TrEMBL record:
The keyword Cell cycle does not apply. It comes from Streptomyces erythrochromogenes. Transmembrane segments: none annotated. It holds the Pfam family HATPase_c_2. Keywords: ATP-binding, Kinase, Nucleotide-binding, Serine/threonine-protein kinase, Transferase. The keyword ATP-binding applies. This is ATP-binding protein.
Length: 147
């Protein structure tokens, strides 16, 4: 597992993307690189727009599991749970749903964790923190609903 905390600034989206690119390259997980990068960009942008109050930041966590799955999580401290909407400018989670194998939202105090997973990312399974905890269930979020 690797993680990085970002302050509330639009410039951090590019930094989060670069951190993800560097991490996946170090893990030799190139198969779904573009999909993961786009989804991290969308989740970071959503966190900045809707989930990071002034003076706060968001946390990006990346996991490489033994079954060659990569998981990206964006933790924020804002209210509410992320969901797919019909707003003209709110298509980020629609992209995440289309590209990721699984995605969802978990409540936390304060805020939430929005996550997505990508299968078939070879060679990331030997990374520290790359073992899925027993009982850690994966569930795709239904459109317009949080898991």
């Amino acid at each position: 597992m690797r993680e990085r905390l970002y302050l509330r600034s639009p410039r951090t989206v590019a930094a989060a993307r670069q951190f993800t690119r560097d991490t996946l390259r170090a893990w030799d997980a190139h198969d779904r690189l573009d999909d993961v990068l786009l989804c991290v960009s969308e989740l970071a942008t959503n966190a900045l727009r809707y989930g990071v109050p002034p003076g706060r930041g968001y946390l990006l966590r990346l996991f490489g599991f033994e079954d060659a799955t990569v998981r990206a999580e964006v933790h924020d401290s804002g209210p509410g749970l992320s969901r797919i909407t019909d707003r003209p400018h709110g298509r980020g989670l629609t992209l995440v749903q289309a590209l990721a194998d699984e995605w969802g939202v978990l409540a936390r105090t304060p805020g939430k964790v929005v996550w997505c997973e990508f299968r078939n990312a070879p060679d990331c399974r030997n990374q520290p923190g790359g073992t899925r905890a027993r009982g850690d269930r994966i569930r795709r979020a239904a459109p317009g609903r949080s898991p």
